[in-house]
Amino acid sequence: KQLLEQKARCEGRRGGLKDQIRHIKRKLQTEEYKDVDERHRVKMIEFETTKIAISDLEIYHEALDKALLRYHGMKIADINKIIQELWTLTYKGEDIFNIALYSGQDSGSRAKKSYNYRVVMTKGNIEMDMKGRCSAGQRVLASIIIRLALAETFCINCGVMTLDEPTTNLDYENKRGLAIALAQIIASRAAQQNFQLVVITHDEDFVCMMKNELATQTGFDMPERYFQVSREEGQDGKYYSKINAIDWDEL
Length: 251
What we know:
By secondary structure, the chain is of the alpha+beta class. The protein contains 5 helices and 7 strands. The N and C termini lie far apart (130 Å).
């Protein structure tokens, strides 16, 4: 009797499984599951190909990251080299030996999307942040020198450089040092056809310094004149700007 009951239960389960098989076979014939083996093969190829592409991209990203890091370090080194040359040439004080641009990248192993740049000065054998520890004239001179270094490093094909009141807060010696540096830059870039330096200043002494320093340089033609902008009252009682071209010899 027990065997007959077990047999009946097994036959019942077998009948259920047969029904499931028939249902699955009919389902496989529908549009949803048509050619499922081929579609599965194609998707597996896509999956494996994508894995390979991701792996290649990770290798490329790491290589690009290292290249950017190296390029950034090289450019910072180039900038600091020019800064040191210009600072030595321009700054006439004896308290600050050199200034440099730091990016905070030295200890990092990956390139960053942004950097926390800071200006560091060297006094004796000690390096310290320049912010809050220098005079207004030193800050002005440092900012001009950094801009000149950036222009020399990145803007070789872009020849227009503008300085607006560059002698603000500079004493006589540092103004003369700046004039020497600008004269040397003009002489070295004279062969570049699109180079133009525009200096906007109220300081006539600095204009005379520029004239004298340019006269000591060779390999380029002296500018024939400079432009003086004045404010004059018109017949209608309104004030207008007037631009006069003045020969260097009239300085």
